[in-house]
Design brief:
heterodimer, A: 414 residues, 71% helix, B: 117 residues, alpha+beta, two-stranded antiparallel ribbon, 4 helices, 6 strands, flat
């Protein structure tokens, strides 16, 4: 990434956030003039030198672009109803206080991008576009959709914000917890998309995870009284600390117990673990805090064999009460298998396997196959691997299932 | 800003309610209407007769075709509407959430288009 790209990523969100407010909530206009200001910078700075206050320069330029547009459209069309634009003309930009209300603007932008009246897909796209400064093409690549589809998604979201008048405000106290949940869900989804195995472009995926952590840190800083952001950041840091060891040099998946722990990022694990403690103490056992606590136990175990599985089982039980989803139930079963034997784990997995809606849930078959293999019930394991293989979504998953299937078949035939 | 709150409910379920239940819900609507008149949000609102009384009209090749029933068969049917004045979507959605049908059916909130005069 070039110096200028970095500047763009860093500054475009702050500029956009500030200008949306000036323009009475007009996302599209703010974004367009910010683009134009950066384009102007790219032309002029190499010739005239970088200004002393790049931010102030960019803001002023973006404002001028907006005023030009308003003047032009006033000449051609009926007068526009844009009081914010007119106010701009009398609002000089002082380098010192350009972003006096920056924190507040960021929060408004965050809560508007993650507004529940927008589809989750749109929330994610809009957050990455406006808050993280990713290009439409980059977001499209990350989510494996055509750039034109992603562009339409963004246009539609901005149109709805404007026409349905989704307010550009920080939610009131009474609503804050619920709305914050929505924001954190978007952040975590971005992280998971970047972390989830390996389909698509590896570079853009790593970038997504980094952006999610950056967003999480931002929310943590902007809402210092809330503990859920702390727990989510902890969870992301702890997962991310292991990221390089999850796939080997050939791009094959490596199970947690086989990962090279010497390559885990110890400093980041310590940072995550400290946050887990802080979150649990101040906010109690919330879903993110419990998941982060589980991740911390894994990350802090010196070897796979010394993992505190009984404690992990207890944490999963608590999590299951708050978040009774299949993913949690399956992870709980896997932890029980480690703590109390494969037989006990398998019993829980079989209960899940009876559920109609899980008949095409790949991780269920992968876990069941793994437990059967450990119990040396190779023929049944092979059947489960076969099923897991047909349901595998990514290339590494498929290769992993194939490898295991070959191994178990070899054992069955002897 | 003006928004329309479109009230969707399963007609069959609504019809199968006991008399007391029906009266209770009617009372809730009356209270809601009075409250949003009081607060200045109310513009207008009407209940609709059932979809059994609906006629869908299309003009095809210059010929008017009338068909019996609503335009689409759905699980929930449009049963009435309010037009309200609200400062933004959050306020309008807050009003919608207070409608009895928000619990038993669903309420669609749509901004009313401002026509240039």
């Amino acid at each position: 990434m070039s110096e200028f790209e970095r500047l763009y990523r860093r500054e475009s969100a702050a500029l956009t956030a500030r200008l949306i407010r000036s323009f009475g909530g007009d996302f599209a206009l703010a974004e367009e003039v910010v683009q134009e200001a950066f384009a102007a910078a790219l032309e002029q700075w190499p010739v005239h030198g970088t200004p002393e206050h790049p931010r102030a320069w960019l803001l002023q330029t973006a404002q001028h672009k907006a005023i030009d547009r308003a003047r032009r459209s006033r000449r051609f069309e009926a007068p526009l109803d844009e009081p914010g634009l007119l106010a701009l003309e009398s609002e000089p930009v002082e380098p010192g206080n350009v972003f006096a209300s920056e924190q507040d603007d960021y929060l408004r932008l965050l809560f508007t991008c993650c507004h529940p009246a927008l589809s989750l897909e749109a929330q994610v796209a809009l957050t990455l576009r406006t808050l993280c400064g990713l290009s439409t093409e980059e977001i499209a690549r990350a989510f494996l959709v055509e750039p034109v589809t992603m562009a339409q998604r963004l246009v539609r979201a901005k149109h709805k914000i404007k026409v349905a008048k989704i307010p550009y405000v920080v939610p009131e106290r009474a609503e804050l917890a619920e709305r914050l949940d929505a924001v954190l869900a978007v952040v975590y989804l971005v992280f998971s998309e970047g972390y989830a195995a390996t389909s698509g472009d590896a570079w853009i995926r790593r970038d997504l995870s980094n952006e999610a952590i950056r967003l999480g840190l931002l929310v943590e800083r902007l809402l210092p009284d809330e503990t859920e952001p702390v727990a989510l950041v902890a969870l992301m840091l702890l997962h991310d600390a292991r990221r390089d060891t999850r796939v080997d040099a050939q791009g094959d998946l490596v199970l947690l117990e086989e990962q090279d722990r010497s390559r885990w990022d110890r400093a980041q694990i310590a940072e995550g673990a400290a946050r887990v403690e802080r979150a649990l103490r101040a906010g109690g056992a919330t879903p993110y805090a419990l998941q982060a606590a589980i991740a911390a136990l894994h990350a802090q175990a010196p070897t796979a064999g010394t993992t505190d599985w009984p404690q992990i089982v207890l944490l999963y039980e608590a999590l299951l009460r708050l978040l009774p989803t299949t993913v949690v139930a399956l992870n709980h079963a896997a932890a029980v298998a480690m703590a109390h034997g494969a037989e006990a784990g398998l019993r829980l997995v079989e209960q899940l396997a009876d559920l109609e809606e899980l008949q095409s849930y790949q991780p269920l078959f992968a876990t069941r196959a793994e437990l059967l293999r450990r119990l040396e019930r190779h023929a049944e394991a092979a059947l489960a691997y076969e099923r897991g293989l047909t349901l595998a979504k990514t290339e590494p998953e498929r290769r992993f299932m194939e490898k295991r299937l070959r191994e178990t078949r070899a054992l069955t035939s002897t | 800003m003006q928004y329309i709150l479109l009230i969707y409910e399963n007609e069959a379920e609504a019809k199968s309610r006991s008399k007391e239940e029906g009266q209770r819900i009617f009372g809730e609507y009356m209270a809601f209407t009075a409250a949003i008149k009081q607060s200045g949000h109310m513009r207008s609102g009407e209940p609709l007769e059932g979809t059994a009384t609906a006629t869908t009209v299309r003009v095809k090749g210059g010929k008017t075709v009338r068909t019996d029933g609503p335009f689409a068969e759905t699980r929930e049917q449009l049963g009435g509407f309010y037009i309200v004045e609200a400062k933004d979507l959050d306020e309008a959605a807050g009003l919608a959430a207070r409608l009895p049908a928000a619990k038993t059916g669903s309420v669609e909130v749509r901004p009313i288009m401002k026509m240039p005069m």
